[in-house]
Amino acid sequence: MILVLLILVPLVTGLLSFFIKGNGAKGLALSSTIITMALSAFVSAGNFATPMHFSVPWIPNLGTEFSLMADGMSAMLCLLTGIVMQVVITVNWNKETPRAGSFYALLLLSQAGLMGVFLAYDALVFYVFWELALIPVYFLCSMWGGEKRIAATFKFFIYTFVGSLMMLAALIYLSMQTPGINSYSWVNIVRSGAALPAAQQQWLFWLMFIAFAIKMPVFPFHTWQPDAYEQSPTPVTIVLSALMVKMGLYAVLRWLYPVLPQGFAMWSDVVIIMAIAGIVYASLIAIKQSDIKRMIAYSSIAHMGLMVAAAFSVNQIGMHGIMVQMFNHGINITGMWLIVSMIENRYGTRNMNELGGMATTAPRMAIAFVIIALANVALPLTNGFIGEFMLFNGLFSGGSHYHITYMVIAGLGVILGAVYTLNMLQKTVFGNAVSMKVTKDLSSGEFLGLAIIILLILVLGVYPKPLLDLTQGIAATLVP
Amino acid sequence: MKAIIAATIMGIIMMFAGIMTKDKKSLTTLATLLLVGLLGVNIWDLTVTSSLAPQELFNKMMTINRFGLWFNTLMTACTLLYALLVAKEIRKVGAHVAEYFALILFILVGVYILACYNNMLMLFLGIEIMSIPQYILAGSDKRNLKSSEASLKYFLMGSFSTGILLMGITLLYGAAHTFNISEFNNLQTEHINPLAIAGIFLLIIALSFKVSAAPMHMWTPDVYDGSPTPFTAYMSTIVKAAAFFAFLRLFQGSFGNFSSSWTLVLAIITAATLFIGNLTAVFQQSVKRMLAYSSIAQAGFMLFAVLAMNKVAWQGIIIYAVAYSVATIGIFSVLMKMKDYTYDGFNGLAKKDPLLAFTATIFLFSLAGIPLTAGFMAKYYVLQAAIMQGQILWLVIFALLMAAISVYYYFRVIMAMYFKEGNPELNDDITGTDRFLLVLTAVLVLLFGIFPQLVLGNI
Question: Which of A136, A443, B62, B142 shows its CA 20 to 30 Å from the CA of A256?
Answer without folding.
Answer: A136
